[in-house]
Amino acid sequence: MIVKHLDQIVGTEADVDTAGWTSRRLILKDVGMGYSVHDTVIKAGAELDMHYKNHLETVYLTEGAGELVDLATGVTHQLRVGSIYALNQHDHHLLKANQGSHMRMVCVFNPPITGNEVHDESGAYALSD
Ligand code: 9YT
Fold first, then answer.
1. Looking at domain 6-110, does it have CATH number 2.60.120.10?
2. Cα separation of 34 and 84, whole Å?
3. Is 74 helix (H, G, I), strand (E, B) or coil?
4. β-pairing, 21-27 with 36-42?
5. Which residue of 24, 50, 91 sits with most ligand 1 atoms within 8 Å of its CB, as the best mutation to test the pocket?
6. CB 18 within 8 A of CB 102
7. How does pLDDT run across 93-116, given as a tens digit for each residue?
8. Where are the domains of the chain?
9. Is the pTM of this model over 0.85?
10. Is the CB–ligand 1 distance for residue 50 below 6 Å?
């Protein structure tokens, strides 16, 4: 059994900070669950163009509000606390946190990420092997 607290992640190499987001990687590939789980904060006003070609991702919003644009269709979805989305088709998308409001989200990746991935120029994470 694995039991941890966010406090044990903050400030370690599993706490990854970028210009638009901070991701605290709680459960990673090394523990063998088959997925990774992250507590992620999208910074207020950030706009992120992402395309996880190598991963499936589900995201559950626990704080804040924003928008999710499906870049294949142009459809915009409003996000608020309790919204969940699943990128079941490796969907190319734009995630926007409202001005003045961060978004805090639980993110689950399949396959799991290893820990310190950041987006490449296409908005993807590389596969670990
Ligand atoms: C929702 C999303 O994809 N945000 C970017 C960071 C990523 N989810 C992560 O690694 O936690």
1. yes
2. 20
3. coil
4. antiparallel
5. 50
6. no
7. 999 999 999 999 999 999 999 887
8. 6-110
9. yes
10. yes
